[in-house]
Amino acid sequence: MDALVPPRRPPAIGRLLALPAARALVERHGRPLVVEALRAAAASFRAGEEAPILAAAEAWLDHHTRGPRRVLNLTGTVLHTNLGRAPLPEAALAAMAEAAGATDLEFDLEAGSRGERDAHCEALLCHLTGAEAALLVNNNAAAVLLLLRALAPRREVVVSRGELVEIGGAFRIPDIMREAGCRLREVGTTNRTHPRDYAEAIGPRTALLMKVHRSNYAIEGFTAEVAEAELAGIAHAQGLPMVVDLGSGSLHDLARWGLPREPTVREAIAAGADLVTFSGDKLLGGPQAGLVVGRADLVAKLRRHPLKRALRLDKTTIAALAAVLRLQADPDRLAERLPALRLLRRPQAEIAALAEQLRPALAAALEGQAVVSVEPCESQIGSGARPSDRLPSAALCLRPRRGLTAEALATALRRLPVPVIGRVARGAVLLDLRCLEDAEGFAAQLPLLAP
Ligand SMILES: *Cc1c(COP(=O)(O)O)cnc(C)c1O
Question: Residues bearing N6-(pyridoxal phosphate)lysine (predicted)?
């Protein structure tokens, strides 16, 4: 038997390492990683198959060591969570680079003594929202968690049943409440909650009233909800705080730029909210962060909580956030300077013209494999902002010819040097060009497309 079945023994790693192609990999990645990659690759080949082992090792290294790479988001969802949400402005990149080395992160240069890291953004946030104080954490989920832990341990938080949202991934209001160690007191029904529902739920164990912005869905028809000002009135009459989880947290009225209206942080503060939490990388257009603004005494309480230390922001993120807030403070020029807003308000005619300009090159690259046309489509803001509002846009539509599928076309696009991410719908690939700013880069790599 042994003589008939040759053992599938892989070649020795030492022999592979001596090959010129392996030496080139060692030059790039260092010896220990290349040894690990060769071991992983060699297991699936037998002696004599050296070229495929080296190719597999190179693919392994590429896959496991390169970190997040640049892609072209042509999904039509501008703030796409899986694709990193808001694209950062140049000003933020420069600020991150400046803060990368030693920096006055927690150092007061005037006094020469210890400073406060959130202070770099606090004055701007107060200016932009009308709040007394501000605090920064890692994301909005962390902001809500810290708020509940600091203000409502082992006590009740009153929330409308219509606002017990799941944001996607693992952020569900009831779960966060449990994790924070407080008790959720649901009031009202899915579609209707009235002032008396809140008032009747308040008791000796109540810590605060909470309103959650229904980010990713809409309730229509026979509905009723209690506005922030009225809810604040009910809470304050009982000496309780009212807090708002605003989610995308716009700092300006988007109607100013012809976009669907979103509630602003300033409005929530003006309506009487004691604390408002929101994300840094949604409509604010900055890095991933969670922001809490509101009453100084409550913010101070959150700042003193041990969890704040575990959720604090990194210096480069604070630098980027401060840069974006500086842009936000000049709304007249914001639409040109902030990529997220620039992309959101891009007119359909401009996007359609870009699609017409790129269509011939794409059609040539897919000659005989797909029919390429320009079609109107609808983009969405994403990250839970205004799910029912769509932004008119234009797409390159790739309809595969017989023998090829839309999925295969989408895969080929993802394999380009700068991966192109579109969406597959009704047997075609749609590339919504709203977020394509590097048209030349896109066109330059089309000849490499190989479905
Ligand atoms: C997006 C969102 C969150 C979660 O924010 P992250 O910054 O992604 O952690 C929480 N609440 C609401 C209402 C949201 O829209």
Answer: 282
Determine if ligand 1 sits within 6 Å of the CB of residue 138: no
User: How far, in Å, from the CA of 279 to the mean position of ligand 1?
Assistant: 6
Pair 219, 122 in one domain: yes
Residue 111 reports pLDDT greater than 80: yes
Q: Is the CB of 211 under 6 A from ligand 1?
A: no
| Shortest-distance atom of ligand 1 to CA 248 | 15
Helix (H, G, I), strand (E, B) or coil at 402: coil
Q: Is 89 in the pocket of ligand 1 (CB under 6 A)?
A: no
| Mean pLDDT, the chain, integer | 93
Question: Could you identify the atom of ligand 1 that is nearest to the CA of residue 385?
Answer: 15
CA 222 to centroid of ligand 1, rounded, Å? 26
List, in sequence order, every residue forming a beta bridge with 293; answer none if it has no partner: 134, 276
Q: What is the CATH number of the domain that holds 369?
A: 3.90.1150.110
Q: How far is 29 from 396, CA to CA, in rounded Å?
A: 39
Mutate to test the pocket of ligand 1, among 167, 179, 228, 288 (most ligand atoms within 8 A of CB): 167
How many Cβ atoms are within 10 Å of 36's Cβ, its own excluded? Answer: 16
Assigned token pair, 104: 């006055």
* Number of domains within the chain: 3
The answer on 375 and 313 residing in a single domain is no
pLDDT one-digit tens code per residue, 214-252: 876 778 888 899 999 999 999 999 999 999 999 988 999
The Cα 283–Cα 260 span in angstroms is: 12
159 with 225, same domain: the answer is yes
Residue 139 in contact with ligand 1 by CB distance below 6 A: yes
Residue 215 Cα: closest atom of ligand 1: 15
Residue 368: strand, helix, or coil: coil
- Burial string for 403-416 (b: 16+ CB within 10 Å, else e) reads ebebeebbebbeeb
- Distance of alpha carbon 232 from alpha carbon 295, whole angstroms: 13
Instruction: Assess whether 268 and 228 both reside in one domain.
Output: yes
Q: Is the CB of 212 under 6 A from ligand 1?
A: yes
Residue 60, domain extent: 2-65
